[in-house]
Design goal:
With 263 residues, this protein is mainly alpha-helical. The protein is built from eight helices and no strands. It comes from Cellulomonas chengniuliangii. Keywords: Membrane, Transmembrane, Transmembrane helix.
């Protein structure tokens, strides 16, 4: 016992103290890991059930997993809104700064966007293998996946989904801080501006977006989404949109008055 205590209290040894920035990232990622596990569990269950039902009573002609794309945008978006409105006050009350909260939340938003996109692309690959084995066509009909006609084009698919998902999580932070500072009425009225990064990213990395199917500029030129250079330019433009969104979120967070969110 004495030897054990002496060993733990060895002269010169120092306890590892993590910065508020690192601790906040760990806390938020831990929370999002649990929520993400539930989300993907529900998605996977639904995909399996839908595939079995369609195969039993009809003909499987399109990808079922593709319909999870909207969920990979709006679920993490809503989680980022809740993160800001429910944890900013306890974070500052615990003695940490708004700056550390803003920086950590931005990092978590980017990680979350990339993770949701990677899982979706992974599920599409698994589905492709299953469909090939069963002799079913894996047709993609979702306009947000029109960057490619086949899920075997992993690079463009992953780039497109990562950018749109990261724009969604960054936008969620912005929506959350506007609601936190300005309240329900102004937060709702500001939605056309605060969710605009999602639609901007969607327009930049797909041929069309939404039911209105807006054409995008640059076809045949340096911005042609079908070329590697064009896709890289569009991804860079998306990164700028996301960076601006996170910068505005950070500025609004650092100037936020501490208190109960005005929802």
């Amino acid at each position: 016992m004495t030897a054990a205590v002496a060993a733990t209290a060895r002269p010169g040894s120092r306890a590892v103290r993590r910065s508020p920035f690192v601790r906040t990232i760990q806390h938020q990622l831990g929370m999002q890991l649990v929520l993400g596990a539930w989300f993907w569990g529900v998605i996977l269950t639904g995909v399996i059930l839908a595939t079995v039902l369609v195969a039993s009573f009809g003909t499987v002609e399109t990808s079922i997993v593709q319909f999870a794309r909207q969920g990979t945008l709006w679920f993490p978006f809503s989680m980022m809104v809740l993160t800001v409105t429910s944890t900013l006050t306890p974070h500052v009350a615990a003695g940490m700064t708004r700056r550390s909260f803003a920086a950590a939340s931005a990092v978590v938003a980017l990680i979350l966007g990339a993770a949701y996109a990677a899982v979706l692309v992974g599920l599409l690959q698994v589905e492709r293998v299953v469909y090939n084995a069963a002799g079913w066509p894996q047709t993609l009909t979702d306009s947000g996946l029109d960057i490619t006609s086949s899920t075997s084009d992993i690079g463009p698919l992953l780039s497109s989904l990562t950018m749109t998902a990261a724009a969604a999580t960054a936008s969620g932070l912005l929506v959350g801080i506007v609601y936190y500072r300005a309240g329900g009425w102004w937060g709702t009225l500001a939605l056309p501006l605060t969710v605009a990064p999602i639609f901007a990213a969607g327009l930049l990395v797909s041929y069309a977006i939404g039911p209105i199917s807006l054409p995008v500029v640059g076809e045949g030129g340096v911005w042609d989404i079908g070329s590697a250079g064009g896709l890289a330019l569009r991804a860079a433009a998306c990164a700028v949109v996301i960076a601006i969104t996170l910068a505005v979120f950070g500025r609004l967070t650092r100037g936020a008055a501490l208190g109960k969110p005005n929802l």
